[in-house]
Predict the structure.
Amino acid sequence: MKGKICGTGSCVPEQVLDNEELSRMVDTSDAWIRERTGVVRRHIVREETTVSMAVSAARRALENGNVSAEEVELLIVCTFTSEVLLPCAACEVQKRLGAVNAACFDLNAACTGFMFAYNTAQAYIASGLCRTILLIGSESLSHMVDWEDRGTCILFGDGAGAAVLRSAPGEPPVSVMHSDGAAGGALTLQSLHSGELPQRCHGTADLPEKPAGAQNGYIQMNGREVFQFAVKKVPEAIQEVLTLGGTECGQIDYFILHQANKRIVESVAKRLHADAGKFPLNLQEYGNTSSASIPILLDEMHRDGRLRRGQTIVLAGFGAGLSWGASVLEW
Ligand code: COA
């Protein structure tokens, strides 16, 4: 059996921060951001949270797929920016949806999260463990970027996307997943606890101290390193799934890539000798929404009719870890 996406949904915050406004906050310009990244504006949470956006996106996906919350057997939230760690965001979403029959967990593979969750869902369905799975990518990255660091704050935005998978006859999609922890220093986010040996204080108890230092709690990135990693590894992974599945590049209707940077997407198209028109972009509107970017784009394309049943599409994600993966599937 394979999992077929039968419904999609998304939710982005109402508040918009465009490049002009951003260039009044840090030393940058609309022209620089557009040229180097393709981003024009991003949506930023005000009242919304990672969990609330996840719930809205999930409701829309369930409605779109004509699936009730009670039918969901597995609910995965991909995130590293949830306002709640215990219980996991997925359990909070379950509670608000009334998805009472679902097992719930979060998956953190940063911007590759949705890709890895999609493959996880396929494995659960292929094994017969589950028939109906709800996948959500939801991120409030605006809480994790240093708004004084022009090298990172221009890139990211907030939002959520969701997809419902139902089991259907047929072979699961061909997928590959990769991680390289040794190269992980290129893109990091330290937890607010230091992980270092606790300082002895207040009597005999060893209590952890909150670390000082601006690097804690903010995304740190070597932009060039991440860029070079993405433009090398993403086409390799796509070529890998195409070869494994015996699919020609020309047979692909759409390459739906994680929306990090227009130049990365264009470079992947070029390296694959593929038609750039088959690489849809919406990062100009949302920036990089990490694990939410692929399901938001899927939702847009599903609703506006670009995605049609029977088409062959490639999904590809990449990000911190470093991690990356791709899948070729029939829509
Ligand atoms: N506005 C204006 N100038 C900026 C700037 C900004 N927002 N950010 C950096 N610069 C400056 C740098 O200080 C540097 O100046 P210098 O030449 O005087 O030293 C110059 O622009 C070039 O910096 P560089 O970092 O080499 O730019 P770049 O072309 O690599 O673009 C990124 C920077 C971040 C846009 C690019 O590296 C990138 O997109 N990388 C991938 C990041 C990513 O996608 N991460 C998430 C993956 S999931």
Notes: Residues 28, 32, 36-37, 111, 150-151, 154-155, 221, 223-224, 226-227, 260-261, 288, 319 surround coenzyme A (CB under 6 Å). The longest strand covers residues 158-168. DSSP finds ten helices and 15 strands in the chain. Residues 223-245 form the longest helix (23 residues).
